[in-house]
Amino acid sequence: MENRIKKVLAELESGVWFLVTDRRNVRYLSGFTGTSGYVLLGDGKAYFITDFRYTEQAKSQCPHLEVVTHGQNVWDLVSSLTAKAKELLVEENQITLSMYKELQEKVKAEVKGTKGRVEKLRIVKDATEIALIKKAAQITDEAFEEICGMIKPGVTEKQISQELEFAMMRKGASHVAFDFIVASGVRGALPHGVASDKVIQSGEFVTMDIGAVYEGYYSDMTRTVAVGPLDERLQEIYNIVLHAQEESLKAVEAGKSCREIDKIARDIISAAGYGDYFGHGLGHGVGLDIHEEPRVSPFGEEILKENMIITIEPGIYLPRIGGVRIEDLVLVETAGASRLSLSSKELIVLC
Ligand SMILES: [Mn+2]
Question: Over the stretch 208-223, which tens digit does the pLDDT of each residue have?
């Protein structure tokens, strides 16, 4: 944490202070796991601002910051701590307009927006972060394996989602990463079809996009399995998506751009005639948040670096027919990448 704070401080000119309000950025800089606290940095100083409920927790979790407790109005405290500042930067994609107005009324410094200062540090993971994300991915793999046996005609998408959630919690997840996507049959054409009461039938695909959170860090994985015999069209799109996933994954390594990795999968799907049915980016960074930088898409200018963690998740979605997505979480290395999602990607046919 100490190094992270130093990096942010080093980019602030004298008289310029930075109020960090995003919960994940606060956690990244301070180690604080509670829900109410801000980090305030400037002129070589680092404060952790919280209220009475969290003072003791903050003192034990944030040894590198000076913990200060605010009274009725947090901005009064920010105002006194920044009395000599000329500018106060706030996270413009996080703070609300009313927070901004109240803050500007209270503080002498000029309040200005900024973004990405902490997020850009979060892109490359350190060894501790990698270990936590690996653990979250392992919980996800184990939960997936455990519930495969219950996927059969007659069960609902929600039942599968609930069993997955319960399995992850039993295996040590602190919570689940998002509302799980369990999309079967024609619902598979919805890239983000959250589990519904739909009953699974023979001849359908079931796409499950799932993840666990372990000590604040996320995992993300998608598998598509078949229930009973499939028609040829569905088998064909599975094979295309799997091929696109594996080929783009093979290309992942430090030094390449996100855009060129996306292009590999997109070209394979387009050449097979399904380019119009893969309407989202190939992947995204994962860490303290489920979706973070870098964006792996046709517009992803970012160059991959060692120890970034990204997803590779091509899909094909055919309206009124169904869909397939296959997603792995991967660690970028100097030469190549290693998969953190280890569940098999061969087509599993359950019945
Ligand atoms: Mn994802």
Answer: 999 999 999 999 999 9
Distance 262 CA to ligand 1 centre (A): 14
Distance of CA 241 from the midpoint of ligand 1 (Å): 15
Neighbours of ion ligand 1 (CB under 5 A): 220, 311
How much is the pTM? 0.94
Q: Say how many Å lie between the CA of residue 56 and the centre of ligand 1.
A: 36
- Read off the pLDDT band of 1 (50, 70, 90): confident
CB atoms closer than 10 angstroms to residue 80: 12
Last residue of a domain, one of 87, 122, 157: 122
Residue 224 CA to ligand 1 center (angstroms) comes to 14
| Cβ within 8 Å of residue 30, ≥6 positions away | 1, 37, 39, 48, 58, 61, 62, 64, 65
| Statement to judge: residues 296 and 190 lie in one domain | yes
Helical packing angle, 157-170 and 127-148, nearest 10°:
130
